[in-house]
Design goal:
The chain is mainly beta. The chain has 10 helices and 48 strands. The protein has an 8-stranded parallel sheet, with helices on one face. A hairpin with a 2-residue loop joins strand 39 and strand 40. Helix 5 packs parallel to helix 6.
Length: 819
């Protein structure tokens, strides 16, 4: 038995938080996992020898984008089990299990008994297990489910994936019988409210929640503030008596004279607050919290002010997921993302659309990034479900209490892109202000801006806008319309703006893609978008924030856009973090003080034309261009850091393009090689899917039911058919050569009793997919003819199916083209 205990202990990585009584054991190793529902899996004697061995953090959908051809990634139960080694030294102490996050609901069992259930995938939860354990190995079983649930926010994954699993750290906390409670919504138990902060003085109200399982005993509560050099700058002490099984909230008032202010990226100065419980001259518990002293406000005409000075809040939105890892990220993943955001030169980050890892907030504290944190009240919105509304409020309280002391957080986001009722948003706003009177409430909306009562409820508001992408108007027109339609005293910002861009798709003269169903999103159009939109937004001083959507590409289940399905490709960096798109360097040149000299369209290597433009993003005073060693002149970048040389001649074969300039006396260069091939075709290609599409000779489909493949719709056999349950799925026929097509005959399965919505598209080597016909099936049996408005020259014809009669299913018995 002793050897078994030692072996189990070695699987737990140990960290003492204080060096005193409180200890924290990371329960991350020796877990067993089973994907699916299992009866009695919580029982101590249940056999898990056949289960998969995993470590925490873990998700069962890590390869969601790679492995899926539609949005049917696994949504259901998953079981986890491990052993908790309870040593003799722990007996007589208090023991708590703390989960930083489990997606989306979690049922916790210790030694076969249910400890509790948590609903909500993005906030921490904590349970005391003192009475559930014994000395020696103890069974911990956790059932996690990411199934859609109308009672839990978010009710589904319409905008982002719900990966599932215990995807954040799990800890075993060991404390004295009298402790600073970890049970107050899994918070630190310490709340530092900043009052009357100025350059001369900062007043603090520090609330500490103390819990005891002993008879009434007297303890000393000592709270101390230390500066960045470890010098004591403020302290307070109070004698406290806590009753048995009571949690007492004790408030102490402290003052810091001549404070060194937390000033975002200008100077992210941090103090440290140490709260100790002392009994008989010994520290029996200790909690350490960050402290950044600052004051701020938002002006309706001039935007955001920090410590009395204007501070332009521009930055990015960020989802907490990486390709091949899903949401099960380590601290190193978060540090890498923050390093990218810092290099970009961002001042702020919107952590969308849910509370993110505790490490992220700490990194924002130390790096000086201003944070908008929010809860996952996103589509679909279940306003009529009282359990959903209650769960939204629960998650709001959890988010605020768990993150109360992070100086980087300035805004609590209450919802994103929903038609929330005025009553509900008022309830949420009032709850947030009761929890935290000092930060501002906000929300991100894409709804009509004349819904005045709702939009006046939060302290400030912001809109998700997509000018020259989803919206035909430019950014100035959109912003001015919002300003004109909203109350004059409402502070407004931009919570999202962006456009899709794929690093393997290129066009030197890009047209606007189809933003909702296009498969060709050239990187050059994304560049054009940001070059047009950022100057317009930057010219509106009344905007209190401006956030790019998104820093990184991320999983968007069920969407077919660009070169990969299930992908939102509006990021400045690819999903795997391996490639920074051109637009990343546009913003780095505009936002960063680091020297930037970057040739755009560098991945468009093979060129079909001998004459091209060379465009560079640079914050240098001037840049010189040479092509194959021949000087092409010096250009000064414009106000928004764009330098361009037109009508540059390429020689046949390889061409070395080099730009150079100086920064503080140091030579900066960038170089690419482009190949001019007269035989090449300047093709906007049929997208070859990397998403397991089904190809059978000249016939293909984005998805198909087993035994009903694409070729079955072109075999002149009425007993076979193609079928799919994916809305937006396509069926395609490749033609042997460019052919004039006048129309199409389609035999819909059971077409006399079903109405199918569809679009026919054509493509040639010189164009992208072009709509040729769209409509609804005729409601008739047999082969039906749909004539195009005009004949189309096509290399391939595609039928895009949008389901029938409220269902996502589509099925075609036979297709014949009319030449």
């Amino acid at each position: 038995m002793k050897r078994v205990l030692i072996a189990i202990l070695l699987t737990l990585s140990f960290q003492a938080l204080s060096g005193y009584c409180r200890e924290q054991l990371a329960v991350d190793q020796s877990w067993r996992f089973y994907k699916g529902s299992v009866e009695n899996a919580h029982h101590s004697g249940f056999d898990v020898s056949g289960w998969e061995s995993v470590t925490i953090p873990h998700t069962w959908n890590a390869n969601l984008v790679k492995n899926q051809t539609d949005d049917t990634y696994y949504k259901g139960d998953g079981w986890y089990r491990t052993r908790l080694p309870i040593t003799s030294e722990m007996i007589g102490k208090r023991l708590f299990l703390r989960f930083e996050g489990a997606l989306t609901t979690a049922d916790i069992f210790v030694n076969g008994e249910k400890v509790g259930r948590h609903e909500g995938g993005y906030t921490a939860f904590c349970y005391e297990i003192t009475s559930f354990v014994k000395e020696g190995p103890n069974t911990l079983a956790v059932k996690v489910s990411n199934a859609y649930n109308d009672d839990v926010v978010p009710a589904a994954g319409n905008l982002y994936a719900r990966f599932g699993g215990i995807y954040r750290p799990v800890s075993l906390l060991v404390t004295d019988a009298i402790c600073i409670t970890p049970l107050d919504y899994a918070s630190s138990g310490v709340y530092i409210r900043q009052k009357n902060v100025s350059e001369q003085q900062a007043e603090l109200d520090v609330t500490t929640k103390i819990s005891s399982t002993k008879q009434d005993e007297e303890i000393q509560l000592v709270t101390s503030v230390f500066d960045a050099n470890g010098a004591l700058v403020a302290t307070g002490s109070k004698i406290v008596t806590v009753s048995t099984n009571e949690t007492a909230a004790i408030v102490q008032h402290l003052t810091v004279d001549q404070p060194h202010l937390w000033d975002a990226r200008r100077n992210p100065y941090l103090y440290k607050t140490v709260v100790q419980l002392v009994q008989d001259g010994e520290v029996i518990d200790e909690v350490i919290q960050p402290l950044g002293l600052r004051y701020f406000h938002v002006d309706v005409d001039k935007g955001f002010f920090l410590n009395g000075k204007p501070y332009d809040l521009y930055g990015v939105c960020r989802h907490q997921e990486w390709e091949y890892e899903g949401s099960a990220l380590t601290d190193e993943h978060h540090r890498s993302d923050i390093a990218d955001i810092m290099e970009l030169g961002a001042h702020a980050v919107r952590l969308a659309h849910y509370p993110q890892a505790e490490t992220m907030y700490s990194l924002c504290n130390s790096n000086g990034l201003v944070v908008w944190a929010e809860i996952p009240v996103t589509p679909p919105y279940k306003a009529k479900n009282p359990k959903y509304v209650a769960n939204a409020k629960q998650q709001l309280v959890e988010m605020i209490r768990q993150n109360y002391n992070h100086p980087s957080i300035f805004f609590w986001g209450l919802y994103n892109e929903i038609n929330i009722s005025t009553e509900h948003v008022a309830d949420m706003h009032n709850l947030a202000k009761a929890e935290d009177p000092d930060r501002l409430t906000t929300a991100a909306s894409n709804k009509k801006w004349n819904m005045l009562e709702r939009f006046k409820t939060t302290d400030i508001m912001a809109w998700n806008i997509y000018p020259i992408w989803y919206d035909k108007r430019d950014a100035t027109q959109v912003v001015q319309h919002i300003r004109e339609m909203t109350p004059r005293d409402l502070c407004i910002g931009i919570s999202e703006y962006g456009a899709g861009g794929c690093i393997n798709q290129h066009d030197q003269n890009p047209e606007k893609p189809d933003p909702k169903a296009g498969r060709f999103y050239p990187e050059e159009y994304q560049n054009y978008f940001h070059e047009q939109v950022w100057p317009d937004l930057n010219s509106a001083p009344f905007l209190w924030c401006k956030f790019i959507w998104n820093m990184y590409d991320f999983a968007w289940p069920g969407v077919t856009r660009g070169e990969r399905i299930n992908m939102n490709n509006k990021g400045l960096v690819t999903y795997d973090r391996q490639t920074r798109k051109d637009s990343f360097y546009y913003y780095k040149a505009n936002w960063s003080e680091e020297p930037v000299l970057y040739i755009t369209s560098r991945r468009h290597v093979v060129r079909a034309h001998s004459v091209t433009a060379v465009k560079v993003y640079s914050n240098l005073k001037e840049a010189a261009l040479s092509v194959n060693g021949q000087e092409q002149g010096i250009v000064q970048p414009d106000q928004y850091k764009v330098a361009k040389w037109d009508n540059i001649e390429l020689q046949e074969g390889e061409n070395t393009i080099t730009v150079s300039g100086q920064h503080n006396g140091q030579i900066q260069t960038d170089s690419v090689v482009w190949v001019y091939d007269p035989a090449a075709k300047d093709v906007k290609p049929i997208v070859e899917n990397t998403d397991n599409s089904i190809r059978e000779g000249d016939f293909s489909a984005s998805s198909a039911e087993q035994g009903k493949g694409p070729k079955d719709a072109f075999d002149n056999d009425l007993k076979t058919r193609w079928a799919t349950d994916e809305k937006g799925a396509w069926l395609e026929q490749k033609l042997p050569e460019s052919t004039e097509v006048k129309g199409i005959h389609i035999y819909w399965f059971e077409g006399d009793s079903r109405n199918y919505r569809f679009e026919v598209q054509t493509i040639t080597e010189a164009t992208r997919w072009i709509p040729a016909y769209s409509g609804t099936s005729d409601g008739k049996a047999g082969l039906q003819y749909y004539e195009f408005d005009k004949p189309c020259i096509a290399d391939a014809v595609r039928i895009v199916c949008y389901g029938r009669d409220g269902s996502s299913w589509s099925s075609i018995v036979e297709v014949q083209l009319q030449y």
